[in-house]
Predict the 3D structure of the following.
Amino acid sequence: MRHIEDRIQEACVSWFDLQFPKLSRLLHHSPNGGKRNPRESARFKAMGTRAGFPDLILLYPAAGYHALLVEMKTKQRGSKQTESQKNYQRLAEAYGYKYTVCRSFDEFRHTILSYMKQDSSIKNQ
């Protein structure tokens, strides 16, 4: 299931880069997941890795939000947010960030276009 989610995310990032080339560097993925040995896990935690951090963050303010945070999931049964992801969502939303869960490329595209259309300066970006 993880590989399906990865492929969807890759398509989303590729589309974003083509659609908004001047903003492409503002869309970021932080590799939080994956298997790590205990020493590496401790080092990443000490460096600021946080449980529940979303898959993608768009560091562009629009629609009255500071930034857009996207958690990627699939439509497959069992693909749901963890408790740490839900807690992160509540915290981010409380401080003025837009947080969304996208389960497909089409949902991501719709989310981005809706978020960006609130900012008239984004035309021709």
